[in-house]
Design a protein that fits this description.
Blueprint (H helix, E strand, L loop, with lengths): L4 H7 L7 E7 L5 E8 L5 H5 L4 H11 L1 E4 L2 E4 L2 E5 L1 H5 L11 E5 L7 H12 L3 E4 L18 E5 H4 L4 H8 L5 E5 L4 H10 L3 E2 L18 H13 L5 H8 L3 H11 L13 H8 L1 H12 L8 H20 L5 H10 L2 H5 L3 H5 L6 H9 L2 H14 L12 H23 L2
Parallel strand pairs: 2-5, 5-6, 6-7, 7-8, 8-9, 9-10
Antiparallel strand pairs: 1-2, 3-4
Protein name: EAL domain-containing protein
Pfam families: EAL (PF00563), HDOD (PF08668)
Organism: Marinobacterium maritimum
Length: about 425
């Protein structure tokens, strides 16, 4: 498989900051950018970028990259910037196409700052304004300069937004609905005409009562059930898989991908099981169980993969038993969203041991604890992280998990 935690810490460039990324979506729920979440409110991180090519390389190489239809591409990152960063004439030569500079609501909007922002816009930088308060006149001069305006829908209140949008029509702004927490809020913002969206609305299931698992997911569950049987054989597992030859082919494509670093090509599922063992086959079956259907965005699968791998790495780093089970719990933690089913109903159809099911429903036990750690990290809630690990381990584990999910998704989409 991949490197262990201690190997990764030795191999990877260590950032001086904890950092996660949050997607920026279009109306069709495609990801068009990422906002960087980092723990350093004093601005040392952004101001330090001018002297830190290695960190800039990590940002552009990992935090901004995404796999779409099997191809890796780089998306722009929203970078929260301080007044001093903007006013410092020694601004690092950031690649303009890779960053959107995001001004914060608590900025001291002086004539000097306005002139500087105008100059940056003239130079070709994309600019966003966050924390906009329509009652505060200090923001008015910036509305003719910035390109993206973020509106916190929780703070403003959905019912108050339509008249505000009328007032903003005179400006050439791309409007971003921020803190969109449910699918219902997403639909209302869509009707209002927002172009961009941020928030955790993809993480909430819209449970359809009485829904059953269908399609190739049924075959995958049958394989998982067979994998649990003590007298299962490579041949008995392969027989079930062959009910869906296209699925079997796609699993083999992933097995042979760079994500698994194999020295020789594997030509059949039975061969793979014999060579690499049932635990690894279980991993791949679960990967395909987590693959988004056509009506769900790829970002959901990407997040499930990243979260699963991060749970596994944290388990390895903390010396927990059976890291693979932590991977499974992390991976399946959003299967309810993917399948639009309540987690408890869903788990009645998924063959898992009881402590893993309990972790998925209650976030309890060793599995639930590390799942919570991964969730805290991906939301940028760094103060909630356990002291069981030094902080840099979390960032390296997260970054490695992003890269790993890219490789796997690329193999899955290319199949």
């Amino acid at each position: 498989m991949a490197s262990t935690g201690s190997q990764m810490m030795a191999e990877e460039h260590q950032l001086q900051v904890l950092m996660a990324r949050q997607p920026v979506y279009t109306k069709s729920q495609d990801v068009v950018a990422f906002e960087l979440l980092f723990r350093d409110n004093e601005g040392r991180f952004v101001e330090g970028l001018k002297d830190d090519e290695a960190t800039l390389g990590v940002l552009l190489g990992t935090y901004s990259s995404i796999t779409k239809k099997g191809v890796v591409k780089s998306l722009p990152c929203f970078l929260k910037v301080t007044d001093s960063f903007l006013l410092n004439n020694d601004l690092p030569e950031l690649p303009r196409q890779n960053f959107v500079l995001e001004l914060l609501g608590h900025s001291n909007i002086t004539p000097e700052l306005i002139a500087r922002v105008k100059d940056l816009a003239r130079q070709g930088y994309r600019l966003a304004l966050a924390d906009y308060d329509p009652r505060d006149p200090k923001f008015a001069p910036l509305l003719n300069i910035v390109h993206v305006l973020k509106l916190d829908i929780q703070l403003l209140g959905l019912d108050n937004i339509p008249p505000l949008l009328q007032q903003l029509r005179t400006y050439q702004l791309e409007l971003l609905a921020d803190k969109v927490e449910t699918q219902e809020e997403f639909r209302r913002c869509l009707e209002m005409g927002f172009g961009l969206y941020m928030g955790y609305f993809l993480s909430k299931p819209e449970a359809v009562k009485g829904k059953k698992i269908t399609g190739n997911k049924v075959v995958l569950l049958q394989i998982l059930t067979e994998l649990q049987r003590p007298n299962a054989t490579a041949q008995s597992i392969e027989q079930i898989a062959l009910q869906d030859p296209a699925l079997t082919y796609r699993i083999l494509r992933v097995v042979n991908s760079a994500a698994f670093n194999l020295k020789r090509e594997i030509s059949s599922l039975a061969h793979a099981i014999t060579l690499l063992g049932i635990d690894q086959i279980k991993r791949w079956v679960l990967l395909f169980l987590s693959a988004a259907d056509k009506d769900k965005p790829d970002e959901l699968t990407r997040n499930m993969l990243t979260r699963g791998r991060m749970c596994e790495l944290l388990a390895e780093m903390m010396g927990r038993d059976e890291p693979i089970n932590h991977f499974i719990v992390g991976l399946l933690s959003q299967l309810d969203v993917l399948l639009d089913m309540e987690m408890a109903d869903l788990l009645e159809q998924v063959p898992l041991q009881q402590d893993m099911k309990t972790a998925l429903i209650e976030r309890s036990g060793s599995y639930g604890e590390l799942l919570r750690q991964a969730e805290y990290y991906e939301r940028g809630e760094f103060d909630q992280l356990s002291r069981a690990l030094d902080r840099p381990f979390y960032e390296v584990a997260y970054r490695h998990s992003l890269n790993w999910s890219q490789q796997v998704l690329r193999a899955m989409q290319g199949s």
